[in-house]
Write a structure and sequence with these properties.
By secondary structure, this protein is of the alpha/beta class. About 40% of the residues lie in helices and about 15% in strands.
Length: about 230
């Protein structure tokens, strides 16, 4: 803890003075983050570092396995963060970010590891679909590291599907006011692969290319087109 205390002191004494005007403005006017990022609690995955976001730019919700439980009447921290980000802060983008070497995904692949951790085991049920997909639809002879990586990537897609069950997300998708993104951070290389909904693959975007997206309002056509509002401006 000593290093963390030194860090607090160094932030206050050496870093904060250089940004004090920005912090004062944010304190005065409140936050207007561009996006909600749901990432793993893993200490090696730092949303603000990966995106080089500054104070006020990213609304972050972290948990073991970057999981979004499907909407239910039970209250939960992730559901509350989603609702608040969309309805109170008006974010227009939500990113689910998975990563390599994820301990939660390793736990999914080895349920015996979870035996002494009943809460983790119950939480990871929200990712079982990803594990089942890899067990059934991927080669049986995948190496251990490839299996964990495949589960982590499939888990991003499963959690994006869960996002769509939340009323605030569903409504904003229907009015084309929100876009969903799936990212995968590779700890060893620092590379971020982005899920391209058009081709259903993760890839590193080309320099200058518009960011591929996972789900947009256009993916969910109005079932009664005569009542559809015009799509929001690009
Ligand atoms: Zn993780």
């Amino acid at each position: 803890m000593g290093d963390l205390l030194k860090g607090i002191s160094s932030f206050r004494g050496a870093v904060f003075p250089g940004h004090s005007e920005l912090y004062r403005k944010l304190a005065r006017e409140g936050q207007q983050p561009q996006a909600l990022m749901i990432s793993c609690a893993d200490s090696r995955v730092l949303p603000e570092t990966i995106t080089q976001a500054g104070p006020g730019e990213l609304f972050v919700c972290r948990n073991a396995g970057n999981i979004v439980p499907p909407f239910s009447t039970l209250n939960g921290g992730v559901s509350s963060a989603i609702e608040y980000a969309i309805l109170a802060l008006g974010v227009s983008d939500i990113v689910v970010c998975g990563h390599s070497d994820c301990g939660a995904m390793k736990g999914l692949c080895h349920p015996e590891m979870l035996q002494p951790m009943p809460n983790v085991a119950a939480w990871l049920r929200h990712s079982h679909a990803a594990y089942s997909i890899v067990c059934q639809a991927y080669p049986k002879d995948l190496s251990e590291s490839d299996r964990v990586r495949a589960v982590a990537m499939e888990n991003v897609i499963v959690q994006l599907d869960h996002l769509k069950t939340h009323p605030s997300v569903a409504a904003k998708l229907a009015t084309s006011e929100i876009t969903l993104h799936g990212w995968f951070f590779d700890i060893e290389t620092g590379e971020v692969q982005v899920y391209d909904g058009a081709t259903s693959t993760f890839r590193v975007p080309e320099e200058g290319e518009p960011l591929p997206v996972a789900v947009t309002g256009r993916d969910r056509p109005h079932v009664m087109p005569q009542f559809a509002a015009p799509l929001a401006a690009e």
